Each structure stands twice: as C-alpha cells, then as structure tokens.
Amino acid sequence: MPAARMVTLNNKTITIDDGMRARILDEMPEIRWIADAALRDGVTDAWAAAVASSSLSRIGDMKPSGNYDSRPLRSGSQADHIRSVTRMAVKIAEEFAQLFPGFTVDRDILIAGSLCHDIGKVWEFDPENVRRWKAAPRKVGVPSLRHPGYGIHICLTMGLPEAVAHMAAAHSGEGELLTRSLENTILHWADYTFWRVVEAGDLFADTDRWLEQPN
Length: 215
Ligand SMILES: [Fe+2]
Known about the structure:
Elements: E1 5-9, E2 12-16, H1 18-27, H2 37-52, H3 78-99, H4 107-116, H5 121-124, H6 127-135, H7 137-140, H8 147-157, H9 162-170, H10 182-200
Antiparallel strand pairs: 1-2
The structure holds fe (ii) ion.
C-alpha cells in the first residue's frame, strides 16, 4: 500500500488513507484488474479523493443514472453501472483479440479509463450542488459542469494518464467533437449499451424520487 497522500480538490484538503482506499476497492473490486501498480493506486486514490471532495460518503450514494436528471435504475447503484460498463468493455476487447490477432488494445488503460469514466458524477450528482443549481438556474448553469468536465479536473489533478482523462472527458456526447481513442471507443459503446439494455429490459425505475426531494 502506498503512503497516505494529501491532495486539494474542490477547495478541500484531503488526506487519502488506507481506510478510504479499502472502501473504494470494496465498492469497485475491478480496480485490482489493473496490472500496473502505479495506475491501480492512481485510480484508487482518484476515487477516494473524488468521494471525499463531495458531500457523498461512498460511490453508491450517487443516484444510479446516466445524468443527474435522467431516470435511475430500479435497483443497483452507480458503482454497479461503472463496474458493469468496465466488465463489458473488457469483454469487447477480449472478443476482438481472440478473433483478430492484429488487434491490440491497452488493457490497463481500458480498465482504468472505464472505471474513471463517470468519476465527475461526484460533482454533477452531488445533492448539495443540484439543490444550489436549481435554486438559481442562471447563476452558474444547471449543472454548472457535466460529469465529463469535472472528470477531467479530477483525473488531471490526481495525475492520471492523459489517455484516462480523455476517456472521462469524451466517453459521451462531448466525444462527438473529437476523435476518440480505441479504448474510449470501446468504453463509449459499452456505456451506451448499458443504458439501452436497461431501457429495453425495463430496469429503469418508474418514478424518480431523487429529484422529488425538497430543495
Ligand atoms: Fe457511464
């Protein structure tokens, strides 16, 4: 285990300790699939700092949806979404590698980027932020930053590779403005597949109680 690490995120000074790391690894065990130790620790620390920078106490406290105002899952958490997308992305890469010997993908970057793709939701989905934005919609926007935007901030602040920041930045609509990397292309379709299958499989909740909470 690396030493405790101090970072500043969202104007908060955060000391990342082993207890915080263990809780992140409990919620997202696929972090252990990353072979490179520095990248594995970097993803763990990025999530630990991301959660600590918000009013949330764990990844699973976030609304389990694609956007702050879209319908949530009937059951399952935001961590389940991120884990499922990561597992699908790895399966897509493995499928191509088996049939097409010339196909090469950076497996560590694929896993790290998939696990971090929605890390910026700690900002977009933070109930305190949503309440603040909705109370004065024209002040800083609603949301002020979507999760890809805040995801870039976290990834770069935490020293994660450019390839991972790119996946947080451009896995969704923002990526239509640029050319996605191979790993981000796989992630993009795994993420969209997740939400399309949820819709077709009737896995969305009938009502959105998250946005019905009083402001
Ligand atoms: Fe996602």
